[in-house]
Design brief:
The complex is a heterodimer of chains A (about 260) and B (about 500).
Chain A: E1 8-17, E2 20-30, E3 35-39, H1 46-53, E4 61-66, E5 69-73, H2 83-91, E6 94-97, H3 109-121, H4 125-138, H5 154-166, E7 172-176, H6 184-199, E8 203-207, H7 211-217, E9 220-225, E10 228-234, H8 235-240, H9 245-252
Parallel strand pairs in A: 3-8, 3-9, 6-7, 7-8
Antiparallel strand pairs in A: 1-2, 1-4, 4-5, 9-10
Helix pairs in contact in A: 3-4, 3-5, 4-5, 5-6
Chain B: H1 2-22, E1 28-32, E2 42-43, E3 49-50, H2 52-64, E4 68-72, H3 78-83, E5 89-90, H4 98-103, E6 105-106, E7 111-120, E8 136-140, H5 144-150, E9 156-160, H6 163-171, E10 177-181, H7 182-188, E11 195-207, E12 210-211, H8 216-231, H9 234-241, H10 247-253, H11 264-274, H12 279-286, H13 290-324, H14 327-341, H15 345-355, H16 365-391, H17 394-402, H18 407-437, H19 449-460, H20 463-491
Helix pairs in contact in B: 2-8, 2-9, 13-14, 13-16, 13-19, 14-16, 15-16, 16-18, 17-18, 18-20, 19-20
Classes of the chains: A alpha/beta (about 260), B alpha/beta (about 500).
Chain lengths: ~260, ~500
């Protein structure tokens, strides 16, 4: 690899809520095909950072580039008039999976996967259905395509949410604590799907508390604390030999 | 000597009557309009045809040796029916006038009478019709009394279709008095303790039996028969029993002034109308209001459905404005909702209908009614929908946006369909409520169910029965909509089952 062209890059991202700074200058870059885990204590800003990447949150300043779309804001400048437009363009290339799944309860799993392609992209109904069924099959829910979310377990719902995000053919997948709301025995089925996607070369950023998954599956790990990235390093390195005292202290709890 | 002859004649008539009937004569078909037609020819207690005109035509038919056959018709259709040969004659208190004589032939008068003025009890005596200048006076449309009244300058004439309403309005103080034929006044007003006869007899009118102009032979025959009924004293007996043997009648017919028999029929009528009718008779009596009730129900349904459609659409727009709109829209929606919810629907309707013409906007009653209901209920609908929209978790819109949908797409495909299910019960509730509030449109001259209630109650004086009847109609109209809503709710249920 002679030239490093990151698929996602963040430069000096600042974000505060009601004058409380959450992100205090975050920068990193990710190459295509990487699986990156973001770990850190609660309130460190990792979820906010993730939500900034697909424009669900506005930024105070910084530059975010994802799959060719860029959002930027200079310190103290007003929010770009077409922020929502850029963010909208960006979201079409970035899929997101939420802690609470957020499936549409009034639609079947299949319809959940078909809605956005049909409404946003104008994909013909038959094509959307075909893609939807294939994706549900892929996440192990082919038999449940015509059931409603409320009739499924949390693990099944989260897998369906992944299939729904994939239906928009994203370049990057973002996961916001995808297994935190699940019973322990249901966690693995979701992680299994993410590993399978990694094997196919999907670029993924996972905010997680699953240290075992972070260590097993990640290409590298970002450790955040207090609105800063404290450490970015190889998955084995960070667990076996953390450079920063804060990282060491955080990880000690998981041993 | 004279008396003996009369007795002999009577005896002969009785003797020969069976023979006359036995002869092969066609029946005598006669017509009358029997609605609210006492004491002429009307359906009395037990739904039996009765009345002094019935007895007169029976006596005449008997004299003619023909069997009387009654053909019912509406007042307006009586004369046209005669021309078309539906029956041979009409006896229905028709005054003999030169105008009518152009159309039909009249027999000699079988009754003469005058116009009786009736006022509220305790009113000073009215000696002359000229005293009525500037007063509101009621009568029936197309009658001799109407013609009489309209010739007096300054009288404000109000015409009614039913004498009952005219007299009721005297009792209520809406009219100064009512001028109508003496028999009507006697039967509908004389026994009423709140009303009082006043003044001298006004005018003189003669009732004649109307026949088609094409049958002069029948006219001769009937006049002869009528003459015999008069001469035999039978006419005096009939009119005496019905309490209608007046000095004017006696004078005209050249017979003694005192009645020959007690007024038993009149007393029976007064007694029957004074007593409360049985439930069955009351229900039978209400049957004639079916057309009115059906029409009124239709209007209530139309006004309610159109009003609700308007309320739903406007309420939806208001809710979206209030939850998702930018500042000025949000503010306008909130102001509208608070203004409308804070003021009574009746006042809003009255402003729409009677107030707006002041600034040049004249609304048809129907438009004003529908608009009033729609504008009012929109405020309540808006709050329902707002609650429904806010009840959908934020994550739903977030997920929609994360999938690349715009806020608008998320709203219409994700949030609104889910809140629809939530707001259906309160919206159904509101529709039932609107259905009943639609009764207020009767205030802007619409004859909806409540308007019909007013009409029925003023005709029957049975406010309790009419109230129950109309309330039942409201209930029956509402039920299918409650059912429909429950059905829809169940249909929409699959996603929420746990």
């Amino acid at each position: 690899m002679d030239s490093f062209t990151p698929l996602v890059s963040i430069q000096d991202l600042h974000k505060s809520f009601d004058d409380t700074p959450i992100l205090k200058g975050v920068s990193f870059a990710i190459e295509e095909g990487d699986l990156v885990s973001v770990i850190g204590p609660s309130g460190c800003g990792k979820s906010t950072m993730l939500r900034c990447i697909n424009g669900l949150e506005t930024l105070d300043s910084g530059v975010i580039t994802a799959a060719g779309a860029t959002i930027s804001r200079k310190p103290g400048a007003k929010l770009d008039a077409d922020f929502e437009k850029t963010a909208h363009a960006l979201r079409q290339r970035v899929g997101m999976v939420f802690q609470q799944f957020n499936l549409f309860p009034h639609r079947t799993l299949l319809e959940n996967t078909m809605m956005a392609p049909i409404i946003v992209r104008g994909v013909p109904h038959e094509d959307a259905e075909k893609t939807g069924r294939t994706l549900l099959e892929k996440v192990g829910l082919g038999a449940h395509a015509d059931r409603y979310p409320a009739n499924l377990s949390g693990g099944q719902q989260q897998r369906a949410a992944i299939a729904r995000a994939l239906a928009m053919q994203p370049k990057v997948m973002l996961y916001d604590e995808p297994t935190s709301a699940l019973d322990p025995e249901l966690v693995d089925e979701v992680l299994h799907v993410m590993k399978a996607l990694d094997a196919e070369g999907m670029t993924q950023i996972v905010v997680t508390h699953e240290m075992r998954f972070a260590r097993d599956a990640s290409d590298y790990i970002i450790y955040m604390e207090g609105g800063h990235i404290v450490e970015i390093s190889d998955e084995d390195e960070i667990f076996d030999n953390p450079k920063d005292e804060r990282t060491r202290r955080f990880l000690r709890r998981f041993h | 000597m004279k008396k003996t002859t009369l007795l002999l004649l009577c005896a002969l008539a009785i003797l020969f009557a069976p023979f006359a009937l036995a002869a092969d004569q066609p029946p005598l078909r006669w017509a009358a309009a029997t609605d609210s037609n006492a004491p002429y020819a009307f359906y009395g207690p037990g739904n039996k045809l009765t009345g002094f005109e019935l007895e007169i035509i029976q006596a005449i038919a008997r004299e003619m040796g023909r069997e009387p056959v009654f053909v019912p018709n509406d007042w307006d259709g009586l004369i046209p029916g005669l021309s078309r040969g539906l029956y041979d004659c009409v006896i229905c208190g028709i005054e003999i006038t030169p105008e009518k004589s152009q159309e039909v032939r009249f027999t000699n008068p079988y009754y003469v009478t005058y116009e009786q003025f009736v006022v509220k009890r305790g009113t000073p005596r009215v000696a002359s019709l000229d005293q009525l200048a500037g007063k509101q006076v009621g009568t029936l449309s197309q009658t001799a009394s109407f013609v009489m009244l309209s010739k007096i300058p300054g009288v404000i004439v109000k015409t009614y279709d039913e004498e009952v309403n005219a007299y009721a309005d005297v009792v209520n103080g809406r009219l100064f008095g009512v001028l109508l034929d003496y028999p009507i006044a006697k039967y509908y007003a004389f026994a009423n303790p709140n009303l009082q006869f006043t003044g001298p007899p006004f005018g003189q009118i003669s009732y004649g039996i109307a026949l088609s102009r094409t049958n002069p032979a029948l006219l001769e025959e009937m006049n002869a028969a009528l003459g015999r009924v008069l001469a035999s004293g039978e006419m005096r007996d009939i009119l005496s029993r019905w309490g209608l043997w007046t000095a004017m009648v006696a004078d005209t017919f050249g017979q003694p002034e005192d009645p020959s028999l007690p007024d038993t029929e009149y007393r029976a009528f007064v007694a029957a109308t004074a007593e409360q009718p049985s439930l069955l008779n009351r229900i039978i009596g209400y049957a004639r209001f079916w057309p009115l009730l059906l029409q009124a129900s239709l209007l209530t349904i139309e006004v309610s459905i159109l009003g609700m459609v308007g309320a739903v659409l406007l309420g939806f727009a208001l809710a979206i404005m209030r939850v998702y709109g930018p500042f000025p829209l949000r503010w306008i929606a909130t102001l509208y909702i608070e203004l409308i919810r804070g003021t009574p629907l009746l006042i809003q309707l009255l402003i729409l209908f009677y107030g707006l013409p002041n600034i040049g906007i004249k609304l048809e009653p129907f438009v004003a009614g529908v608009l009033g209901l729609a504008l009012n209920y929109a405020a309540y609908e808006a709050e329902n929908y707002r609650a429904g929209l806010l009840a959908i978790p934020k994550g739903q819109m977030e997920a929609a946006r994360a999938l690349g949908m715009t806020q608008r797409q998320g709203l219409f495909h994700v949030v609104i369909p889910q809140s629809f299910r939530l707001v259906l019960p309160p919206v159904t509730n509101d529709f039932i409520s609107l259905l009943k509030d639609s009764s207020l449109v009767s205030m802007v001259t619409l004859v909806d169910l409540t308007g019909a209630y007013k009409q029925i109650a003023t005709q029957t004086f049975d406010y309790f029965g009419a109230g129950l009847l109309v309330a039942t109609f409201y209930l029956l109209i509402g039920l299918p909509f409650v059912r429909l809503a429950r059905f829809t709710e169940q249909k929409l249920n699959p996603g929420t089952r746990k």
